[in-house]
Design a protein that fits this description.
The chain has 1 helix and 2 strands. By secondary structure, it is mainly α. A two-stranded antiparallel sheet has the order 1-2. The relative contact order is 0.05. The model has no long low-confidence stretch (mean pLDDT about 90).
Length: about 70
């Protein structure tokens, strides 16, 4: 096989295939890591919201709806 005017032998071709496979595995691992991080952040936010609702219920406060104005500017 010739690539850019250079003849590639079996060793070079197998090295290219191996590097492409390693890149594909690395991309899949990165994708799984990002998905896990996204899941964990969502789980943590939901847990925090449940905990705040539980504490508000124990205090007798009525929880405000998510679209209620907040902060000093309403």
């Amino acid at each position: 096989m010739t690539l850019f005017g250079r003849t590639l032998g079996v060793e070079e071709i197998s090295a290219l295939v191996f590097m492409l496979m390693a890149l594909a595995i690395w991309v899949m691992a990165l994708r799984n890591e990002m998905a896990w991080t996204r899941w964990f952040r969502n789980w943590e936010a939901e847990r925090k919201a449940r905990r705040e609702a539980q504490l508000a219920e124990e205090r007798g406060d009525t929880p405000s709806p998510p679209d209620a104005p907040r902060g000093p500017w309403g």
